[in-house]
From TrEMBL:
Residue numbers spanned by region Disordered: 364-385
Record-linked Pfam families: ABC_tran (PF00005), TOBE_2 (PF08402)
Protein name: Multiple sugar transport system ATP-binding protein
PROSITE patterns (UniProt xref): ABC_TRANSPORTER_1, ABC_TRANSPORTER_2
Signal peptide: none
UniProt biased composition (Low complexity): 375-385
Organism superkingdom: Bacteria
CDD domains noted in UniProt: ABC_MalK_N
Taxonomic lineage of the native organism: Bacteria, Pseudomonadati, Pseudomonadota, Gammaproteobacteria, Oceanospirillales
Gene3D superfamilies in the record: 2.40.50.100, Nucleic acid-binding proteins, P-loop containing nucleotide triphosphate hydrolases
GO CC entries: ATP-binding cassette (ABC) transporter complex, substrate-binding subunit-containing; maltose transport complex
UniProt cross-references to InterPro entries, sorted A to Z: AAA+_ATPase (IPR003593), ABC_transporter-like_ATP-bd (IPR003439), ABC_transporter-like_CS (IPR017871), ABC_transpr_MalK-like (IPR015855), ABC_transpr_MalK/UgpC-like (IPR047641), Mo/tungstate-bd_C_term_dom (IPR008995), NA-bd_OB-fold (IPR012340), P-loop_NTPase (IPR027417)
Keywords recorded for this protein, A-Z: ATP-binding, Nucleotide-binding, Sugar transport, Transport
Amino acid sequence: MATLQLKNITKRFGDTEVIKGIDLDVEDREFVVFVGPSGCGKSTLMRMIAGLESASGGDILIDGQRMNDVGPADRGLAMVFQSYALYPHMTVEGNMGFSMRLAGVPKEERRAKVLEAAKILQLEPLLDRKPKALSGGQRQRVAIGRAIVRNPSIFLFDEPLSNLDAALRVQMRIELARLHDELDATMIYVTHDQIEAMTMADKIVVLHDGVVEQVGSPMALYHHPQNRFVAGFIGSPKMNFFDVTLVGVKPDGVAIRMPGGGERHVPVDGQHLGADATLELGIRPEHLVLEEQGPLVGKIQVLERLGGQTSLYVQMADQLVTIMADGDVAYRVNDTVHFGFAPERAHLFDADGQVLPSLQQHPLAGLTRGDNRSNGENASSEASA
C-alpha cells in the first residue's frame, strides 16, 4: 500500500479560498475519514488527492513522490463515488473488469482478478447479472470491486453510502471495515455522517470552513475535543452547551456557577483565565444523569423511546437540553425532572471556543478501531492537530 502527505495544500476558485493550508499525514494501511458539514471542503480535498482537481498551492506526496503534476490515471489510486456509475448493459463481471480491458490486460488475467475481488465482496453468485437486477448494496459492492481489481496504492471513497437506506448503510459500514482488514489497505473516506466516521476510522480528520479543526482517533475526539466545533460535531445526539459563570480557579480545576444557581468544580486547567472570563460548559446527553436532588431542573417537552434508551428533550430556562436515559424511565411529557453530571465528564470552553485542557486522561481516549482486532494490533498511529 502507500503513505500520503499533504503539505500546506490550498485551493482557490477565483478569489474564494476553499482549502486553507492543510497539512496531513496518512500512514500506510490507515483507514482515515474526512468528516465535516456540507461545504467544509472535504470532497474538494479528496478530488485534489485523486488528481481530479488541481491544487492552488502546496504539495501532494504519495510514498514520498510529489504528485501535483501527475495525472489521475498515473497516481495509482482508485476512487469509489457516491454514484455507482455502473454500465447498465454490462454484467457484474464486465463492469468490474472494464478498466482492465481498456488497459489491454489479457482475458484470463482479467477474469482471475475479477473472481478474486468477487470472492472478497461475496459477489460470486452475481457475476452474470446486470445492474438492474441488483440491490443498492450489491451495486455499491460492484463499484468497490471495480476499484479492488486495479490493485491501487490507496482507496478513495467519496460518500459511497449516501444513496443507501439506513439498514444498508449499517451493513455496508461493517463490510467496508471488514474489507479494510482483509486487504490491509490504505483507505481515505469522505462523509458528513459522524457515525460513519466514529465506527470505521482509525483516524478522523474534522474539517470546517476549509481548515482542519482536529485530527485523532475516534475516542480521542469524543473524550478530548479541542474546540467547541469538534465537541458539537462529534457525538450523537449532539453535546449540550450551557453559559456558566467563573467563580474561581484552583490548581486542581475551575469552579463555575451553573444556570439557575449552584456551583460545580470541573477538573480542567484554567490558570490563564481572567476574573471576567466568558465560559461555556459542554456535556454530552449520555453524561447527564437524572437525579432527584440534581442541580439542574427543567420540564420534559418531548420523549423519544428507542427501546434500550430514551431521549428526553427538557426545557431548561431558555434552552432545550437533551438527556439520554435508560429505556424504562417512567417520566412523561410535562414532568419536571432534576438532573446533574459527573464533573470529569464536562468540558469547558473559553470565549474563543477553545477547550480548557482536562486534568484527567480518559483510559479509552486513544483507542482506535484497530485496537479491537483479535490480534490486538493497531493499524494506525494517532496524529494530533
